[in-house]
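Thread amino acids onto this structure.
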């Protein structure tokens, strides 16, 4: 017989990495991974992945379209360490070498429902001009050994970076048993109480950063 007092809550993340805007670059692909706290654990789906290579269409738009699906479920006892999505975009330089074109991260939305995030991207920059010239000549741009560092902040305060490009991600968020554990991510107004089906909260709610 199922217990009425759950010990964990569930967070289901569905959606897609829709595309990107990098006016100066083409033929790009995107890698993604999730970063989360010690109390969190994935129960199903993929924690990381890589999109196909895409190029800009014949239209004047600078958009690159991936429409790459995201689907994973987490369990936790504590909202601390709420999952973040880390994305890194790569493409060829003038010598044909794959180099990083941008890193970025965003927290998974807290409220159930549909959400869209536009993630500003950045790249590490060499400290000295000689390093910049050498990295261009050898096709070795500065990169993080582990892209997850962009979600942690620790150790990044000494990194020189340059902003370039944006990645757009859409989310459909569902939660289960958060209220039973004393956590409420829904709206404060009773008139807009999230609908619940089998314990899953799926009501679409606006999310303010």
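Threaded sequence (209 positions):
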């Amino acid at each position: 017989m199922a217990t009425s007092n759950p010990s964990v809550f569930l967070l289901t993340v569905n959606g897609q990495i829709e595309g990107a805007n990098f006016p100066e670059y083409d033929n790009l692909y995107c890698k993604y991974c999730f970063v989360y706290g010690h109390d969190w654990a994935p129960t199903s789906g993929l924690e990381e992945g890589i999109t196909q290579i895409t190029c800009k269409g014949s239209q004047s738009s600078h958009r690159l379209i991936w429409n790459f699906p995201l689907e994973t479920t987490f369990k936790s006892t504590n909202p601390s360490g709420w999952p973040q999505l880390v994305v890194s975009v790569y493409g060829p330089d003038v010598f044909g070498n794959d180099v990083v074109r941008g890193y970025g991260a965003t927290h998974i939305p807290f409220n159930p429902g549909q959400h869209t995030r536009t993630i500003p991207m950045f790249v590490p920059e060499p400290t000295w001009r000689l390093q910049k010239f050498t990295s261009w000549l050898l096709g070795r741009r500065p990169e993080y050994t582990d892209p997850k560092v962009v979600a942690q902040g620790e150790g990044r305060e000494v990194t020189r970076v340059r902003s370039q490009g944006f990645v757009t991600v859409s989310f459909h968020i569902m939660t289960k048993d958060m209220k039973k554990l004393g956590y409420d991510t829904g709206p404060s107004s009773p008139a807009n109480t999230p609908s619940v089906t089998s314990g899953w909260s799926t009501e679409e709610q606006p999310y303010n950063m």
